[in-house]
Every structure is written in structure tokens, then in C-alpha cells.
Amino acid sequence: MGKKISITSIAKHLGISTTTVSFVLNGKAQEKRISDKLVKKVMDYVEEIDYKPNSLARSLRTGKSNIIALIVEDISFPFFSAIAKEIEEKAYKNGYRIIYSSTENDAAKTRELIEIYQDKHVDGYIIVPPEGVEEKINALRLSGKPVVVLDRYLDNVETDHVLVNNYDSVYSATQYLIDQGYKNIAFITLSSLQSQMLDRLSGYEQAIQDNNLRPIIKEITPVDSLEREKHLLSFLERKRNNIEAIIFSTNYICVSGLKAMKQLGLNIPEDIAVVSFDDYELFEMYTPAITSIAQPIESISENAINLLLSRLNKRTADVDKSAQKIVLPTTFIPRDSSGH
Amino acid sequence: MGKKISITSIAKHLGISTTTVSFVLNGKAQEKRISDKLVKKVMDYVEEIDYKPNSLARSLRTGKSNIIALIVEDISFPFFSAIAKEIEEKAYKNGYRIIYSSTENDAAKTRELIEIYQDKHVDGYIIVPPEGVEEKINALRLSGKPVVVLDRYLDNVETDHVLVNNYDSVYSATQYLIDQGYKNIAFITLSSLQSQMLDRLSGYEQAIQDNNLRPIIKEITPVDSLEREKHLLSFLERKRNNIEAIIFSTNYICVSGLKAMKQLGLNIPEDIAVVSFDDYELFEMYTPAITSIAQPIESISENAINLLLSRLNKRTADVDKSAQKIVLPTTFIPRDSSGH
DNA sequence: TGATTTTGCTAAAACGTTTTATATAATTGT
DNA sequence: ACAATTATATAAAACGTTTTAGCAAAATCA
């Protein structure tokens, strides 16, 4: 095998200094007044031996890794993997690579992840945070690394956020059901303190209250899907006659709900109408097709990565520029499951 | 802010050499005969200031980045995102991080990706390769980096493979339909030269031939889902009376097929029975539930990452150890769509 | 012409580790 | 008491870049 190639070996071979090679490679030839002749000589040789700089060395020297950490709840959830796809694509085009991991909504694990990425000196973070990582994220910000929080809102954390209008979305979905004539409308959600869940719940509650109806709220402790289904089964068994419609706060709770309803022989929408937060290919194909509140995945991804990239391109001095909170609208997709 | 902490600043503060600190931190104290007293002193201080080594510097020096590249067709496909989840989890526990990207089955893009990861000095690769990257992968191998190929088989590439038994799986699924009494059985697939697609097709053809039946093969050029649906619609419209059952070679083609069949008012399985390769939550919930050939996602992921980790832990000298080809069985899940 | 500016290039430090070779002090052996 | 060994610690090079500060020659200026 030929000698290891490096900027040094190139310099030696051409009888010039590494400085010059580096300047040429980084497009600073003009600025640094390297003659066109020499530039050509370097470029030709570099081309010839197909030299590629060692990015580790570069990162060590510059302090920039060109890596962005993407920390989501679970990369195998369609919502998150779709986001991962979009974000990676855009980041790639801008010279950044993405390193990912799933938190499983575990705060300790998330804090550990963040620490590891700090050691790796990633340049920025896109995080879907569980409860309990507020201080850690603040510390990250203080260290000068840009952080974009996705899907949820963290109080007392001065950083960029990208989320959807959970409150309004659920409020109007609830109102929609009410307008269709439903009165006993249940809201089934996770027992979670995460902002997006709380906002969805509030939207429901307010709409119910504004219409002088009685709220029916069921909170499921987040466990595995079989457990979830069992809980829903027993809940529906007890309440089936007192409920005319259900709004599920996430698509996977809805799927569990659909399974439970099928087992109980409940017809949708005749016995119980259904609306789910977060669309899913399954909902479109299901019989009957399930009405849903669709999140703008592309727009979420695009805003998140753009926000991060813009911070990354700015001088550190501007970092304290006030945090942005981007709230995107959802799309209500009425389907057969919510008609009368 | 305190001074930047490094192994050097620690050494300076304790009045000892960086060598000593490094030895202690790397657990080589015993071997290098550092006194217990000094070890404790170092450890205590390291603990106190919560020092974490700079992994860039370490990587530069050692030539190991502790990063694995995961290159799949499309990270947003449930099959791949599920694999990504498993692989990341296992890699994480072994001190490796995962960097990912989607190839979109584009050979040029894939080659570019590989080059970039080479620059980043990733330690190993898990790749779902499009056609046309064989030489590049061989070059990778030659450079001493372990590569595990997933989902597909590359001829003339001496590297580890993990895939499922595509041929047998489809052969028996076809036989199953034949045993159910179906005679005019179509196979709808992508027009692709990828090994997994060819194997699935061969399995179908052989079963048809072994039973003296007439093959009906439809190849779809891989385009977007709307196009796919249109193609299937016109195909089914023409052939609806000559087909009793269909085997789809991937889950997303099947979804398009289901949409087309619904539009044409074709009843499953009365008018046409359906089997799909690759299970999908949608299939379980669909009416009727769709029979499928499920791939063992956990096992695929586990085998892939284990294989890679074992190569990574070996000395480079053993690299030429003969490549392994791991072929895993699928699970046939009979559901309502294939009964009579 | 002599001073100044511009042009073209480079030496050397720095980023933060790991590791080889070696120095010194303490201990053991005879 | 002197040699050999062992215990403890370190200096310095190396990994491959980027970048600051500066030098010498050529060009411009007055």
C-alpha cells in the first residue's frame, strides 16, 4: 500500500508547506495570495491521488464536528422516522451528518445521551425531550451549542422550539364532533406531563366546557401495546353505553383503541365515533377510515433543521438572540369514522 | 467560565504528567505500575471536575471513531426504522454511536455517502445496498473496515451478509395459495435487479412451475406511490377476471394494490386473495386482515450488529476470515385475505 | 533611490489525546 | 557493597489538520 496520504505528505511531495496546501484546499488561495500556478499544481496533485482530508483532525483543530445529534422518543415510530428522513436529507446537503438515538421517554437515559454527544463534540442538537431534562438542556445552551426542541415545549428553557398547535387542533376537532351532534365525547390520552399531551387535553376540556358538556377523560399509563389494549378494553366495556365519540391523543393509542373496539364488536361510527391525533397510513385504509389530525411532518422537519442551521452559521456572539417558538398548524382530515 | 479542562490541565493541576493521567483513565494503572495512591488522587479529581475525555482527540490518535454508519434504502420505511432502532440500542451499549442515511436506492448517492463516511473514519458499516456499489464495498473491505450487508445479497462481494430466505418464503407462500385451491396466481413486484427481489420472484416461479400452473408476473417500475397505484389499477382492471390470487413482493406495493382493489370494488379474498411479503401493522388491522410473510426484524438487527461488533473487536489480522452469510427464516402469517 | 506596500509563501503552535522509550528511585540479590 | 531488578513516573512524538504571525522578494510610490 502507498504511504498514508495527508496534507503533510502532499506538501512534502510538492516541495511546499502544509500551510499552502491547507489554504488551497480550503479555498483561501485568493485571500491568502497563493499564485494561480501553485494553486493549480496543488489541485492537480490532490485530484490525482484522490486526497480527502481527515475530518477528525480538522474537527479537533476547529472544534466543529459537522455532526448534529437527533434525539427522539423512538426512531421506529413513523412520525419520528419520517422526521429523521427529512432532517437527514437537509442536513446532508449542508455538510452535516446526523447521529440519532431513542430516549424511550427516559430522562436519565436522555441525560446520558446528551453527555455522550457533548464528548463527541456535536455541533447542535434536535431533541424531543422527556420530562426532567430541562436543566441539562439549559446547560447545553450555556455551553454555546444550539438546541432545537421538537414536538414539545419546555418551560423555563430558553431555546428554539418547533411544535404544532396542539391546543387549537384538539379544540376544533372536539368542536367538530359536537357540531356533528355528539354529546358524550371521551378523550383518551397518556398520563403524561409532557406539554403536547397537556395542551391536547386542555383543548378538549375547553371545547367541552364551552359547550356545557361533561368531560370524560381516560388516562393510560404508558406501557407496552398489549397492556394498553387491555386497559382500553376494560374501559370501553364499562363505558360503552355512555360514550358516543372518542378522541385519542396519539395514533398508537388509537390503534390500541381500534383493536379493543373490534373485540367488543363496537361499530364505528354508529356505536362510537373516532378521531385520532396524528395521522397514520393505517387510518386512511381502515374500515371505516379514521378521521385524524395530521401533523405537518415536512414543515416540522424543515423548520427544525433550518433553525438549527441558521444558528450554526451564526457567530457565537449572536447565540443569545432570543429563542424562537415556531407553532405550526395541523390539518384536520375528516373521514368516515366521525360522520353521523 | 473555568478554564477548559483536558488531560493536560488535570496533569498540571495535580503536578504530574499527562501520561500518568492517561494511563489511569484508561485503566492501565496496574499494568503501567502507577501507585494506588496516585490513581486515587487522579480519579478523585477527575470525578470532582466531572472530566470527560475529548473523543475527537482520542479518535485522531487511535484511528477509531466509535461510530458505525448505517446506510439503508429509506429510514422512514417501517422495516428500516425498526431495524435502526434495534441496531442503535445494541451499538450504544457497546460504546458505538450510529450515523445514518437513506440511499433511495441511488447508487451514485450511496457511493458518495460511503466516501464521506470514510473521511469521517467510521469504524464499520451496515449497508442495504442498491445495485452498482459492489466495487465500492469491496474497496471498503480492502481498506480494512468491516462491512455487513443487509437485506440483499451482493455477488462477488466478500463480506458478511444478513438476509432472509426470500426464495423459500415465497415458494411456500405460493404453495400455500395453491393448496388453498387457487390456480391463477399473480406475482406483483418491482422491476429491480436486487437479489432479494429476484429471489422472491424465483420462489414464486418455481412453485408455479412445480405445480404446472401458468405464471402471471407484473413488474412495476419503482416510482412514487401514486404512480404505482395507477399502474396497478390499470393492470387489475384488465386482468381482474384472470386472477384468483396475488402475491405482492413488498408491503408498500401491497398497500398500493389494496387501494387499487378497493377502487375497483374487488373483494378480498372472494374476488382475489392477497398475500404480501413483509408484514405491516396495517395488514393486521385491515378488513380483511392481510396474510403476510413477516421478516424477523429483531433477529436481523441483532445478527447484523453482533457480526459487526465481533469484527470490530478482532485484530485487523483476522479480517480476511471468511465472510459469513446468515440466512434467517421468515414467518408466514395466514390471515383472512388468503382463505377460501 | 530609498521607503513603503504588496505579493507569495511558510514556520510553528495549537487542538487533546495515546503510547513508546526512558529516566530515576527503591528494592532485591549475592 | 555493588549489580541487577523492579517499581513508579515521565518526556516527547505522533495523529492530521488549521491558523497566526511573519519573512523575503517584488512592485509601487514619491
Q: First CA to last CA of chain A: what distance?
A: 75 Å
The CATH architecture classification of the largest domain in chain A is: 3-Layer(aba) Sandwich
Strand order of the largest sheet of chain A: 2-1-3-4-5-11
User: What's the rounded overall pLDDT mean of chain A?
Assistant: 94
The computed structural class of chain A is alpha/beta
From the structure provided, what is the oligomeric state, counting identical versus distinct chains?
homodimer
- Radius of gyration of chain A, in Å, reads 26 Å
Inertia-based shape of chain A: elongated
Number of helices of chain A: 13
Main β-sheet of chain A: number of strands, strand sense, barrel status?
Answer: 6 strands, parallel
Could you please describe the fold and organization of this structure?
The structure is a homodimer of 340-residue chains. With 340 residues, the first copy, chain A, is an alpha/beta fold. The first copy, chain A, has three domains: 7-53, lambda repressor-like DNA-binding domains (434 Repressor (Amino-terminal Domain), Orthogonal Bundle); 63-163 and 298-328, Response regulator (Rossmann fold, 3-Layer(aba) Sandwich); 166-295 and 332-338, Response regulator (Rossmann fold, 3-Layer(aba) Sandwich). Chain A has helices at residues 7-14, 18-25, 36-49, 55-62, 78-93, 107-119, 134-142, 166-179, 195-210, 225-239, 251-264, 281-285, 297-313; strands at residues 67-72, 97-102, 124-127, 147-150, 160-164, 185-190, 216-220, 245-248, 273-277, 291-294, 325-328, 331-333. In chain A, strands 2-1-3-4-5-11 form a six-stranded parallel β-sheet, with helices on both faces. In chain A, strand 9 (273-277), helix 12 (281-285) and strand 10 (291-294) form a beta-alpha-beta unit. Chain A is elongated and about 90 Å long. The model of chain A has no long low-confidence stretch (mean pLDDT 94). Chain A binds chain B through residues 52-57, 59-60, 65, 67, 74-78, 80-82, 84-85, 88-89, 92, 97-102, 115-116, 118-121, 255, 258-259, 281-282, 285-287, and chain B through 52-57, 59-60, 65, 67, 74-78, 80-82, 84-85, 88-89, 92, 97-102, 115-116, 118-121, 255, 258-259, 281-282, 285-287.
